[in-house]
From TrEMBL:
InterPro entries tied to this protein: ACMSD (IPR032465), Amidohydro-rel (IPR006680), Metal_Hydrolase (IPR032466)
Record's protein name: Putative TIM-barrel fold metal-dependent hydrolase
Nucleotide-binding keyword on record: no
Signal peptide start and end residues: 1-25
GO molecular function: carboxy-lyase activity; hydrolase activity
Every Amidohydrolase-related domain range: 33-330
GO terms under cellular component: cytoplasm
Keyword set, alphabetical order: Hydrolase, Lyase, Signal
A Pfam short name: Amidohydro_2
Any Gene Ontology biological process: secondary metabolic process
Organism (species): Sphingosinicella soli
Length: 362
């Protein structure tokens, strides 16, 4: 069912029940978990209401998504895993989901409140957490929400879940609107984390449209593509999208100077075990062979373009997640250490200074 793909932060479930415990104390831990979520009671109640209305909408995800999580909870999970810093990606965009509409004023109020919850958590964390606010870029409040948070300390960027927002790369009007939002984010100096793939066709031509028409509008803005360029797991379309990103990076295409991909749920989701995802694109290879093919492309592109991320609490806690990741991802010890040390550009000192300058502008 496509709606599950559109709504979920990532699809997981049985594929993550691996029986792999917390990493040993001497294992190398990531410096940053680049994809985490905390949720207020407001959006937790909204998710429960959505589940009642559409019982299958969150099938396959951890039941932890229906619990309120605080910034303190996120820091505790980081401490369990030996991780220094986490990136909170607000799910405020979910109040703008086209399939379950709210009145525009109520949608905007809830989105602002959920974004505030995430920003306040980051501000209270003593630097352990960074917060990205969640916006549906196709709604009437999108640019106002971007402008508001671009002037507020504690907001490090914007999370766009384009599947959840009903985006279709084949819709030229939506492509134009998204390009305008990218341009506005670049002007506001608000980095982007983008979940691109959803229920709409995910063809080579459509991904090329994103790379050629939307991404250039970001300029040198840091952009992080979630779930390794897909929605979790690996299929033929995932590998083709990754190839296209690699080609763009290789030719230094506009918008790729600070482009990275997080690999949350890439290695740990076996698409063959998720009935709602088409099986057509995974024929002819085992899950291990798909992972090997993905890592081969990572090496071609350069491991410096990939950052580690858990998608907690949609999957498993970071400690268990990264222990499993290390076992499933077919990389060498040296490559794993490299991945663990990678930090997205928006968390590095020079970009942090640019954000401070943008906030201070009159």
């Amino acid at each position: 069912m496509r709606f599950r793909i559109v709504c979920a932060h990532a699809l997981a479930g049985a594929a993550l029940m691996l029986g792999i415990g917390t990493a040993a104390a001497d294992d190398v831990a990531p410096r940053v978990d680049h994809h985490m979520h905390v949720k207020s009671a407001l959006i937790t109640d909204w998710l429960l209401d959505m589940q009642k209305a559409i019982p299958t909408v969150f099938e396959g995800l951890s039941s932890d998504i229906f619990k309120v999580h605080t910034g303190e909870d996120a820091v505790k999970q980081l401490d369990r895993a030996g991780i220094r810093q986490g990136v909170l990606l607000s799910a405020g965009y979910m109040f703008g989901i086209p399939a379950v509409p709210l009145a525009p004023e109520e949608m905007a109020r809830r989105m602002r409140a959920e974004n505030r919850y995430n920003v306040d958590a980051a501000l209270a964390s003593g630097g352990r957490l960074a917060a990205f606010v969640g916006i549906n870029p196709f709604l009437g409040n999108a640019l106002d929400e971007l402008e508001y948070w671009s002037r507020r300390p504690g907001a490090s960027g914007v999370k766009l879940h384009l599947g959840n927002s009903g985006f279709d790369l084949g819709n030229s009007d939506q492509v134009e609107a998204l390009a305008a939002f990218f341009a506005a984010a670049g002007k506001a100096r608000m980095p982007l984390v983008v979940h691109l793939r959803g229920g709409a066709p995910f063809t080579s031509a459509n991904v090329a449209v994103f790379i050629d028409k939307v991404l250039p509008q970001a300029g040198d803005l840091p952009v992080q593509i979630a779930h390794g360029g897909s929605y979790g797991g690996i299929d033929a379309a995932t590998l083709e999208a990754l190839r296209l990103y690699g080609d763009a990076i290789g030719r230094k295409a506009p918008g790729t100077a600070n482009l990275v991909l997080d690999i949350s749920a890439v290695a740990q989701l076996d698409i063959s075990k998720v009935p709602s995802i088409s099986q057509e694109g995974i024929k002819g290879r085992t899950a291990d062979e798909w992972r090997a093919a993905y890592v081969a492309q990572m090496r071609t592109i350069g491991l410096d373009r990939f950052v580690l991320a858990s998608d907690w609490p949609a999957l498993t806690p970071p400690a268990e997640y990264f222990a499993a990741e290390r076992k499933l991802l077919p990389v060498t010890e040296a490559e794993w250490k490299t991945l663990c040390e990678n930090v997205a550009p928006y968390l590095q000192a020079d970009w942090a200074q640019r954000r401070e300058t943008a906030i201070a502008r009159p």
